[in-house]
Amino acid sequence: MRSDNSVLYPVFLNLQGRRCVLVGAGGVATRKARRLLQARAEVVVVAPEVSPELEGLAHEVHRRPYRTGDLEGAFVAFAATGSREVNEAVAREGRRLGVPVNVADDPGGGDFALPSALRRGRLQVAVSTGGASPALAREIRRRLEGLFGPEWAGIVEELWRARRDGRAPDGRLEEEVSRCLSRLRA
N or C end of the chain: which has fewer CB within 10 A? Predict the structure, then answer.
């Protein structure tokens, strides 16, 4: 549980193939499930009722209320129910098991907050207000979308290939990066 003056540590997690438990099945849970799938996580949903869309996103579905033990083997968990009591119970179990939990309706009640993220291929720019105003974080991200156009995906991919191959990026790529960065300064 975070205090009101906590400073969050930004991190990008590799969730590929990792069990991520999502307790809840509403719109918030569905959005989280989509993002988890983009990260190639194993999405496990626990909720009494699950929409066909969410069921199609999940690797595993448990159609029942949350109960203690549902976080066993989880890498991370998300409490996204309409019940503050259930969300708090998920957070308590997470603390007991050492599983970080995001609590959708109470940013301070969990272990981490989710940023608003802009993705252009391998490039990710994340904006967070630490849960103070998700709407503000989304608006800042929207404004950044205009600065980081689709061309950034190709640029970062070429930079990644050069680094993977142990070579310096070619001069043409360096010029393209400089040109794109100059637009950011404008």
Answer: C
